[in-house]
Amino acid sequence: MAKSPSSSISGSPLHVTPLVGKFVEELIAFRRDVHRHPELSYREHKTTERIMTRLERAGLKPVRFSRTGCYVDIGHGPLAVALRADIDALPIHEKTGLEFASQNEDVMHACGHDIHQTVMLGVALTLADIDSSAPLAGTVRVIFQPAEEQLPGGALSVIKEGALEGVPRAFALHCEPKVDVGKVGTRIGAITSATDTIKLKVSGRGGHTSRPHLTEDLIYAMGQIAINVPAVLSRNLDVRSGVLVVWGQIEAGVAPNAIPSTGYMAGTMRCLDADAWYRAGELLDEVVEQVSAPYGVSVELEHVPGVPPVVNTEEETTLLENAARAELGEDSVVLMEQSMGGEDFAWMLQEVPGSMMRLGTRTPGGPTYDLHQADFIADERAIECGIRVMAATALRAINLTHRGG
């Protein structure tokens, strides 16, 4: 049964709906300003200043990370929970037609990080407002993390700087354009996948297309590598691990009748399972060598490890789901399928238990957009929903810590 607005344990409220509305209009304006001025990974200087200035105006004391991003603590007593938002944008030319579209050429918040940071700013303001009248019995740390889009992710630098020290659990959210606004998606276990980058430089004797037998026929060799590396990997690993190699870039040649001497290939390797991810990384060199050997080409492989899967723990996911149902209604939680996308919050969940939810951003009855696309539009009503769920989750985490959980 949902708790009433006055319900609490150890003095901390569990229901925040009546407390969020006072900030919504301001936060929508904040989000539009952020969207209008996006910044790439580790260049989020103005973004960081914008966040810190608003937190300081609320009487809080944010701490800046060494490069970009910051964190702020709200409440009293032991750390009960960390809430994380990512703040960087993508190198994409925006094509939404919004009146607040990006003014920074070829940079866009196409993954919803403008929504994420606005939600967590709203959470910080809401919790600070609660704390000013009824001191919280624990401390909530809100982390505004840089460089999620730059593998292996800014989460590693945040961890290195000690942002998770003493934190018993962590939560995050991510926009989900396949889910209607007013709902959230959750999943116990892996909710994202491991993601690496693969880069190959291929070289051999060039020549005329009329005499391929006097060359290493580079284009043909690259075609075989593109097809067979994914196939061989998939036959050396458990099929349930979902190893997926997809090429996004293949470049070679300048003329139709000339076999080139150099070429370049790049793509991603994704995996549903962390153990298989490590195994695939170990196998990759061997597989590339085996596949390319019959064609006589030389291959230089650069394997850039990315992130493991985000694995949601049962207790924290249940905590989050209970908060969502209390704030948004009993039918507000939907089961998410595991995404093949990568997310560096996974590194934080290697350190502490936690959960990431997917925040519905689709206008009911409206179009379904996709992330990392130039036309991505999020329904701004998701901001208030996200604040309500994440603030209520934080309050429940304080109560759990207070009880010794």
Description:
With 405 residues, the chain is an alpha+beta fold. It has two domains: 8-192 and 309-402, Zn peptidases (Aminopeptidase), CATH 3.40.630; 194-307, 2-Layer Sandwich (Alpha-Beta Plaits), CATH 3.30.70.360. Helices cover 34% and strands 25% of the residues. It contains nine helices and 18 strands. The strands form five sheets. It has an eight-stranded mixed sheet. The longest helix has 22 residues, at 381-402. The model is unreliable at 1-11 (pLDDT under 50).
Can you tag this structure with a few keywords?
alpha+beta, Aminopeptidase, 405 residues, four-stranded antiparallel β-sheet, Alpha-Beta Plaits, 2 domains
**Order of neighbouring strands in the sheet with most strands:** 3-4-6-5-7-18-8-17
Backbone shape: elongated
Series of H and E elements: EEHHEEEHEHEEEEEHEEEHEEHEHEH
What's the CATH H-level homologous superfamily of the largest domain?
Zn peptidases
CATH topology of the largest domain: Aminopeptidase
Report on the biggest sheet.
8 strands, mixed
CATH hierarchy: architecture of the largest domain:
3-Layer(aba) Sandwich
Tell me the helix content. 25-40%
**Unreliably modeled segments:** 1-11
From the structure provided, what is the oligomeric state, counting identical versus distinct chains? single chain
The tally of beta strands, per DSSP, is 18
Q: Give Rg in angstroms.
A: 24 Å
Average pLDDT rating: 93
Query: What structural category arises from helix and sheet content?
Result: alpha+beta
Number of domains: 2
User: How much strand?
Assistant: 15-25%
End-to-end distance, in Å?
21 Å
List the total number of helices.
9
CATH class of the largest domain: Alpha Beta
